[in-house]
Design brief:
mainly alpha
Length: about 290
């Protein structure tokens, strides 16, 4: 999960660098890269690309594809840290919806840790550049922020589908369905809006595809192997990359509030990781004793 946050940060920077191209066009090229890379890898492993649990796979692919469109639109029209802030609602949506979708309860103290991290994200947003820096008017900035929140909600559904596929499908099969569904969606949009990439655009498109492919595989493995409430909050660490990349490459300056926000993010994520590890260790220690009694 930590590796995926670093790679997704690279993807964010590439998308921001390609702000002059339509979002669906970037998704179109990214999907082609991912389909080819996933298919080749699956064939080498001798794994059937289309899998067996197709209803869940299509659910993961479709919610992930629409979420990606929303996220790219936010990335292109808002300051980098602001767009990532909206996307960071996804871990909370993921954990909360996981209570009903995958029957994984969120423990009482974890709600407090989620609140700390989210409060830190809000502070970073307040201490960052205004939305008008990327979106034009304040109303447009608010609208694109809403699009970003919708993307986070759909991402939560997508991550829960990944969790439900644990042990049922190879991670690369799950990743393969993402571009398999997003490619025709993006191609349809490109029919109405197309701008041919020029020069360095091809490098950024290739880098975007490569970063995304490895990040998706890493993230999928994380969601399959660990509790949702334990790994999902690690997404918040990507906020530091967004702030740094936004400052260095796009001149997005943030204020003192952002530093306090970063401290809250680290505190919330760290406490959540420590608490879940402690509770899981306690449960594991009790298990043998319970078996003996039984």
């Amino acid at each position: 999960m930590l590796l995926s946050t670093v790679l997704f940060a690279g993807m964010n920077a590439c998308v921001k660098q390609l702000s002059h191209l339509p979002a669906l066009e970037i998704i179109f090229f990214r999907s082609i890269f991912s389909i080819v890379a996933s298919y080749v890898a699956l064939r080498r492993l001798g794994v059937a690309p289309l899998g067996h649990n197709r209803r869940l796979l299509v659910s993961r692919g479709s919610t992930g594809a629409v979420a990606l469109v929303c996220y790219f639109l936010a990335l292109q029209n808002l300051p980098l840290a602001t767009a990532v802030t909206a996307q960071y609602l996804a871990p909370i949506f993921t954990a909360v919806m996981g209570i009903w979708l995958v029957r994984e309860p969120v423990r009482g103290w974890q709600w407090l840790f989620f609140a700390l991290s989210f409060g830190g994200v809000v502070l970073v947003q307040q201490g960052g550049p205004p939305a008008s820096a990327g979106a034009g008017t304040a109303a447009a900035g608010l609208a694109f922020l809403g699009v970003g929140v919708l993307g986070a909600l759909l991402s939560g559904l997508s991550y829960n589908a990944i969790r439900k596929l644990r042990g049922r499908e190879h991670p690369l099969v799950i990743v393969f369905y993402f571009p398999l569904i997003s490619l025709p969606l993006a191609a349809l949009g490109c029919l109405f809006q197309w701008q041919s990439p020029q020069g360095a655009d091809w490098f950024w498109l290739l880098a975007c595809g490569a970063f995304t492919q490895v990040a998706q595989v890493s993230m999928t493995r994380a969601y399959q192997l660990e509790r949702l409430s334990r790994v999902a909050p690690l997404n918040y660490l990507g906020l530091f990359y967004a702030l740094g990349l936004g400052y260095v490459f796009f001149g997005e300056i943030f204020g003192p509030l952002a530093y306090g926000g970063m401290a809250l993010v680290v505190l919330g994520v760290g406490l959540n990781a420590w608490y879940t590890a402690r509770v899981d260790a306690h449960a594991a220690a009790l298990a043998p004793a319970e078996e003996v009694v039984a």
